[in-house]
Amino acid sequence: MKSTLSKTLKATLLTTFVLSNLSFNTKTNGEDPILTINGFTFTDSNKNGKLDPWEDTRLSNNERIEAIIKEMTNAEKVELLVGTGMPGIEVLTGPIGDSKQGLVPGAAGGTAAFERFGIPATVVADGPAGLRIAPTRKNDSKTYYATAFPVGTALASTWNKALLEEVGKAMGNEVKEYGVDVLLAPALNIHRNPLNGRNFEYYSEDPLISGKTAAAIVNGIQSQGVGTSIKHFAVNNEETNRLTINAHVSERAIRELYLKGFEIAVKESQPWTVMSSYNKLNGIYTSASKDLLTEVLRNEWGYKGIVMTDWFGGFPGFESIQKGLSSDVVQQMNAGNDLLMPGIPVQKKALLEALNSGKLSQEIVNTNVRRILEYIFHTPTFAKYKYSDKPNLVKNAAITRKAAAEGMVLLKNENNALPFADKQKEIALFGVTSYAWITGGTGSGSVNNKHTVSLLEGLNAAGYKLDKELVNLYTPHAEKEVVAEKERRQARGILALPERLPELKMDDAFIAKKAESSQIAFVTLGRNSGEGGDRVVNNDFNMADEEIQMLDKISKAFHAKGKKVIVILNIGGVIETASWKDKVDAILLAWQPGQEGGHSVADVVAGKINPSGKLTMTFPVKYTDTPSAKNFPGFPADNPKEVTYEEGVYVGYRYFNTFNIKPSYEFGFGKSYTTFDYSGVKLSSSTFKDQLTVSVTVKNTGKAPGKEVVQLYLSAPSKSIDKPKEELKAFAKTKELKPGESQTLTLTLSPKDLASFLENKSAWVAEAGEYKVLIGASSLDIKQTSSFSVTSEIIAERVKKAFELDSKFSELRP
Q: Which regions of 282-416 does DSSP assign to beta strands (E)?
């Protein structure tokens, strides 16, 4: 094949040179000269006055790329395999060499330019909740704001793939029009533990939700002609010592939980790039794991794009960078990690020495270079797309407003406390976060948006009447605390974690006065977290004493007057709710809903939008109910180096349901302003062959229009291996159903949906026996059941043994 390609290339090039002798002239078109040869025009991208083979668009991209690789020096190859640096990172690493500002200020990095090949520098930028670039630039009066979309937990809670694709398209519009080639998103690591500081960026404790959500967003972004980087591949489930932590995980848990979402995203959306994670997996850095990056990702899943490291992935801590050490670049290249990001000189030096000495083969390097060039050839920058710096921010704001509202979860609504549509009656708006609204988390998942609509602004804009005395008290308090919080974080440096803002102190008499004059109380409870550290149990997962006192006082005073108390949760991840939920009348989980959040909450509160979000994670009664609680963030406790996933596949609802642990709110839960009836569940067959379809009819039996999420769980036989009691295998969301309206939804099951991974067979196996189909409104609210049989064992897929354990441990079993 290589010989044929080489001969074809030589013949084509010979023809080109003959033609160039026949007729040749040069024109200019903007910056790049144009070559005209026998009526064909070509861009002379390297401006050398002749047609080089890589400029000849009559050749295939592969032929052009091979011509470049053939001409490249070892130094040029290395230059392409190492990113161009990231300005400002010296704060963490010390002086590491030249890291110039890229083409788009505030972008996270990029790839090198090669003038002699006409190869431009490409640009990659964060992040999961929208494009993260600098809003202002030197000697430039314009601003470059991006839209802050709802965080990952909010987007996943919509369970609406079409809407998520729409969000992706809006993100992609901003990426392309600001001159960026790849958005470093989405992030889809599993919520193994509620304290993970980056759970707000991620989607779920369940890989099906994670994968389907990511695939929809990737398809939306990439429909705009720009790329994505799904991350962090894989088993990156905590921020504590994230550069060095060694996760010990069984192959079954890796494949069934921690890789499954990535597999879905790769197969259903073909992301341009995958980002390897920081952590070690069974003793090997993921960026140096051939099992992960070549055997599974490429050979099993058929992935064709590039793999890049997370920023400084493979370094054992920033101290090693400060000492001038390099990551193991040879092992990373051999593993299939094509691009080292953000890239520092010491890596280039190590890579070049290895290539020149033969320690690293030309074949491996050429493969990695080829993949990066294939990526570059796809980019808007390579196509010389003239970006406008003017994305459709108005349209995108409307999309984020809609998505945020649809992701909100109504956790409680006693006696129809919501919706509250009376614009004449006064609302008492409590809680510092009502005024200092949290758009999203911190770190690479944050966005430089122009303005965030607080709950105060949202209710005002919707025409609600607010208690002015409270507003006048809270506004300066919130402003003061926001300034103090910013100063705290600036003093602590680039990855400083956010802290909860202190509440305003109010005495009983003052609150009693508010209960007298106002019709209803709204109390916002806020939480934030970010990259670089994990959350804690006290005053974060659990309520702070001052929050409990505030809720107690408000509830007591308002209930004494026969008035209702509504809690709005402006949070990115799970908090404790069991101890206080009975004190209030309604709880609306608004998440961190992006820049239009206050409008979105007002839309739901008013009943303009019926909440249809469902939880994609379990809310435990107490933190210690979480199966990973005793193994998070690892050992030794004061400075973890190892973390053992003893819970195996029993994460989230798989644990709670199998071991009969009562949650505060179960996976899949979410109330509505209307009611739904499920009926007529039908299976396409009573025996499984190649696939099976399940249909069910949902009817709106209430008085308000609304949407319902239908969840299909499967309970499988467990003769050869223990299994969770049930697992989510498919889901669908209805359209908005009017009162009395019905819709029939059809869900499909494939052989792999039935299968568990058996390590002793290195295969996905569906046992013979009876399978129970559970159709529910949540993992515990099952509405319809049916069953089918598998007459003989099905081997859904065979794979190579991978992820050998570096230390033995006992996994949890029912």
A: 284-285, 306-309, 409-413
The pLDDT tens digits for 626-655 are 999 999 999 999 999 999 999 999 999 999
Write the pLDDT tens digit of every residue in 471-513: 999 999 999 999 999 999 888 887 789 999 999 999 999 999 9
Query: Phi and psi dihedrals of 393, rounded to 5?
Result: -65, -30
Mean pLDDT of 403-431: 97
Q: Give the C-alpha separation, 59 to 50, whole Å.
A: 16
Alpha carbons within 13 angstroms on the beta-carbon side of residue 535 total 31
Q: Is the pLDDT of residue 226 over 50?
A: yes
Closest alpha carbon to 81 in 378, 373, 381, 327:
373
What is the C-alpha to C-alpha distance for residues 633 and 245, in angstroms, rounded to an integer?
Answer: 9
Residue 200's nearest CA partner among 446, 441, 489, 477 is: 441
Q: List, edge to edge, every strand of the sheet that includes 25-29.
A: 25-29, 32-37, 40-43
CB-side exposure of 710: number of CA atoms within 13 Å? 28
97 backbone φψ class: left, alpha, beta (φ>0; ψ -120 to 50) = left
**Among this protein's residues, is 310 annotated catalytic?**
yes
pTM over 0.85: yes
Residue 99: pLDDT band by 50, 70, 90 thresholds?
low
Q: How far apart are CA 529 and CA 583, in angstroms?
A: 26
Structure tokens at 521: 């109380």
Measured CA to CA, the distance from residue 307 to residue 310 in angstroms comes to 10
**Which residues in 160-305 belong to E strands, given as ranges?**
182-184, 227-233, 246-248, 273-276, 280-281, 284-285
Catalytic residue among 310, 467, 585, 753: 310
Assign 97 a pLDDT band (cuts: 50, 70, 90). Answer: low
Among 325, 184, 122, which residue's Cα sits nearest to residue 243? 325
